[in-house]
Amino acid sequence: MASFQRKGLQTRILSTEEEEKLKRDEALVSAFKQQKLEKEAQKNWDLFYKRNSTNFFKDRHWTTREFEELRSCREQHPLYNAERCKVFQCDLTRDDLLDHVPPESVDAVTLIFVLSAVHPEKMRLVLLNVYKVLKPGRSVLFRDYGLNDHAMLRFKAGSKLGENFYVRQDGTRSYFFTDEFLAQLFVDAGYEEVVNEYVFRETVNKKEGLCVPRVFLQSKFRKPPKDPAPTTVSASL
Q1: What pLDDT score was predicted for residue 74?
Q2: Which residues pair with 199 in a beta bridge?
Q3: Angle formed by the axes of helices 41-52 and 31-39, to 10°?
Q4: Residue 105, burial from CB neighbour count under 10 angstroms (0-12, 13-18, 19+)
Q5: What is the helix (H) or strand (E) element at residue 182, kind and residue range?
Q6: 163-204, pLDDT tens digit by residue?
Q7: Domains and CATH numbers, the chain
Q8: Are 146 and 176 a contacting pair, CB within 8 Å?
Q9: Type and span of the H or E element at 34
Q10: Can you list the positions of beta strands (E) in the chain?
Q11: Separation CA 32–CA 200 (nearest Å)
Q12: Beta-sheet pairing, 160-162 with 165-167
């Protein structure tokens, strides 16, 4: 598996065959089914995790390599204890994080293949929810599916929910981001853009002789630091 990152490039250019496939799959899932999928989103993801358990997900050793903020949070905080952490279940589009986390107390937030599972109309709610608990001057560390990723082209006809938004056979959904859309989403929620780049990969299956192109978006968006308190100047005449 090869990995490389380029700055200032657009997403992967599709072949003529790939472009034609996307054009053929323009029909959207009915409004009734879309409402049903939204209503059953939590149930579908619960079933997904139950089926896959720990077999589907591998240790993400690359996270501390790509996001140095995570290493500093772990190694420079004097109270860090790897055996103790607070775990709670939360719907970021609906449940208030302040019910579990003090305001402006979090050093770093990771949204790694999280936002793509949220309906685009509710993504801003997630970012506003996170904003309340993040310390000023600290960042959200983001990685997720990019536009024209191979996974996007594997969807069969009848899987499209909206622009860049698809449903899998198990009812779970996935959005494929452009850098422009993601940046606007964060900026509108009050964040500052630090890094926002496409990551291109090639996944090779030597046994089957396949090489498939992967596209991800890797980004950092910062909550603006608080302005220092203004200096009070008094004068008497």
Answers
A1: 61
A2: 5, 216
A3: 60
A4: exposed
A5: helix 179-188
A6: 999 999 999 999 999 999 999 999 999 999 999 999 998 888
A7: 2-222 (3.40.50)
A8: yes
A9: helix 31-39
A10: 2-5, 106-112, 134-145, 160-162, 165-167, 173-175, 192-205, 210-222
A11: 36
A12: antiparallel
Furthest CA-CA distance within the chain: 88
Q: With 0.70 as the threshold, say if the pTM is over it.
A: yes
Identify which of 5, 130, 127, 110 has the alpha carbon closest to the alpha carbon of residue 60. Answer: 110
The residue among 214, 195, 86 whose CA lies nearest residue 148 is 214
CA proximity to 198, closest of 210, 182, 221, 211:
182
3-state class (DSSP) for residue 219: strand
Determine the residue type at 110.
Answer: T
Strands 160-162 and 192-205: unpaired
**What angle in degrees, to the nearest 10, is found between the helix axes of 179-188 and 123-133?**
50
CA distances from 2 to 5, 12, 199, 202, 204 (A): 10, 15, 11, 5, 8
